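BUG-154 | component: ligand-complex export | severity: low

The export step for 5-O-phosphono-beta-D-ribofuranose jobs runs without errors, but we want the raw record kept on the ticket for reference. Input record follows.
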Amino acid sequence: MQPKIAVVVGSKSDLPIVQRCTKILEIFDVSYEVFVLSAHRTPYETQEFSVNADKTFDLIIAGAGKAAHLPGVIASYTLLPVIGLPIKSSTLDGLDSLLSIVQMPKGVPVATVAIDGAENAALLGCQILSLKYPYLKDVLHNFREEMAKGVLEN
Ligand code: RP5
């Protein structure tokens, strides 16, 4: 069995940020599917996706900007872990997105990464999935070793 992640964004305009996330998933050989769905503009399609997501996916990464309700709404319909990616797409520099995503009421958690933290969304997703797919532990160890070498070399 292969890990599979759903990457959902609120608008096509979010796709350039999300490519930094999917690039990591490709390097780690994790399959994924990208969806454009909006909590506000396509609420019925968002609900349909969310209630069925666990039939296909292990985890969901959901990115959105402005009043970024998408990750929380998705999380309300599924028991899959949801990682929220606040996207800087407004005049408020992404602080609106961050607070909309991170300030979930108790009972429905969303694990939130930094504003535009697309790479960390992918890495956190892989770390969570490494509990189920042990090959990811080796990949993550190698990634960290390479990262450390990159920091130390002059
Ligand atoms: C949010 O509004 C989207 O996630 C996007 O970040 C932002 C702007 O969307 P567009 O007006 O570019 O479609 O819902």
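Assignee comment: Attached the raw record above. Residues 8 and 35 are 5 Å apart (CA to CA).
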